Amino acid sequence: MNKFDIIIVGAGPGGSIAGKEAAENGYSTCILEKEKISDNGRYKACGGALAWELVEEIDYPEDKISRVIESLELHHLDGDHFSKKGKGAVVWRSTFDKYLTDMAISSGARLEEKNSLINITREDNLYKISTEKEKYLSNYVIAADGVTSQTLKKLGWPYFQKEDLILTITKEMGTSRSQIDNVLGNDTVHLFFGKDLISVGYAWLFPKADNITVGWGNQINLIKNSRTEFEQFVNLDFVKKALKNSELTIFKPHLIPVGLRPKLYEDKVFAVGDAGGIVDPISGKGIPYAMMSGKFAIEAIMKGEKRDKLEKLGQYYEAILDRNFLKILKAKRIARDKIFQNDENLKRFLSLWETHRSSEIVMKKLLE
């Protein structure tokens, strides 16, 4: 039996940062991952856009960046167009996740790859985890295994409401750099909006070096026929021009939470990142929130142990989240319904988004 202070299920951004923080602070730490982590390993249906501040914060190597971005072009179906300036990067998630996982391993965390969780139970004040290969014991568990977290499902945690889930469809289309530069621009990502296109959500074209990530996402309970609605997007003139002579390499549906899970903590188990619905409800941005929530889960454990108040771990965790971003995400979830209520509100938001952060628009109530 392998015994650890902390077991983390899932080696995505949230799990890896939790592993790094835990190991650096002296906890015996194991990260369980169902797939193989490598630069060209598991595929994540994710556009892979990062703010440049995050690139600098983790010292992410520029040679691992697929494309540096300088602007976000916002297209409305009726022809209105908005442009938001700002530096960022587009990365392949397999490469990005490998970089973060390597950070965790370098800090002393143990990685168990291709080792899916089969079951988890609470026994004698410890968690017993069974996987395809081994059995483990742990004092704390970090659930970082995504929106459909098997960890939390096995523990009987409540799932998300349907209105808090977005179904996305992603296609990876191989093309040439010159085609991307000529049609999309060499430093631009494109988002597409419109109630006649997507009820509550948007579509996107994210350029990488010689590939375009084509995505579409809509609130799951409002979708009538996902493939038909996705095809409506790819048949737009601009999109058809961008994808001319490209080749499909990957097709994958995926769920994204846009509202919090009904609970984020219970009995020494923490939900981080997508597993907790800790995602921007308007943009669907999740990577930085996953990383921060992983870090904050470890901070909550340390605080609880230092004060000898383990019964307050959940309070500590949510208080740290609240201080940093959770209150803003909750406000954005409320604002999201108003933004996507009609095209007038949607275009008003896009106009404001050109020169303001979305959090500023919401917290200062600029839409009202």
Question: Per the principal axes of the C-alpha atoms, what is the gross shape?
Answer: globular
Largest beta-sheet details: 8 strands, mixed
Topology-level CATH name of the largest domain? FAD/NAD(P)-binding domain
* Total strand segments: 16
- Ends apart, CA distance between termini: 58 Å
Count of the domains: 2
The helix/strand class is alpha/beta
Residue-averaged pLDDT: 96
Query: What is the CATH architecture term of the largest domain?
Result: 3-Layer(bba) Sandwich
Give the amount of beta strand, in percent.
25-35%
Radius of gyration, rounded?
A: 21 Å
Low-confidence stretches: none
The helix/strand order is EHEEHEEHEEEEHEHEEEHHEEEHHHH
CATH superfamily annotation of the largest domain? FAD/NAD(P)-binding domain
CATH class of the largest domain: Alpha Beta
Secondary structure: helix percent: 25-40%
Tally of DSSP helical segments = 11
Question: Can you characterise this structure?
Answer:
This protein has helices at 13-24, 52-57, 93-107, 150-154, 177-183, 226-234, 237-242, 287-307, 313-339, 343-353, 358-363, and strands at residues 2-9, 29-32, 49-51, 67-76, 81-90, 110-112, 117-123, 126-131, 135-143, 165-174, 188-193, 201-207, 211-219, 247-257, 265-266, 269-271. By secondary structure, it is an alpha/beta fold. It folds into two domains: 2-42 and 94-160 and 261-339, FAD/NAD(P)-binding domain, CATH 3.50.50.60; 68-89 and 162-257, 2-Layer Sandwich (D-Amino Acid Oxidase, Chain A, domain 2), CATH 3.30.9. The strands form two sheets. Strands 1, 2, 6, 7, 8, 9, 15 and 16 form an eight-stranded mixed sheet that branches. An eight-stranded mixed sheet has the order 3-5-4-11-12-13-10-14.
